[in-house]
Amino acid sequence: xIEKGGKLTNHTPIDNGIKxxxxxxxxxxxxxxxxxxxxxxxxxxxxxxxxxxxxxxxxGYAYTTxxxxxxxxxxxxxxxxxxxxxxxxxxxxxxxxxPNRYGGKPLQEYKLSDKWRSGAG
Length: 121
What we know:
Blueprint: H1 16-22, H2 31-42, E1 61-62, H3 66-73, H4 77-89, E2 93-98, E3 107-112
Antiparallel strand pairs: 1-3, 2-3
Helix pairs in contact: 2-4
């Protein structure tokens, strides 16, 4: 386990620079924020078509729903929204709203950002 403010070693493919920001003792990021970030990273689409044969306009975005994230991460709605807000604030992700094909509130999609490198937050 990495302690906030502790020495970092790289036993994962996660850039040490990212871990330095997450685990710096002088910020308000926590382990929940890191879990949400890793979850979003796992769902980023890297091809134009997600293997379906037609460009879906989602390359570079994760479009898993908040409901799914809440269930799989065992986190409440307010907690998840707070994590997403902090990830945006610290420059790890950007969001965009897309229409919900079933009606109702727009859905959020998430794109990785390098703004954290310039000290966002």
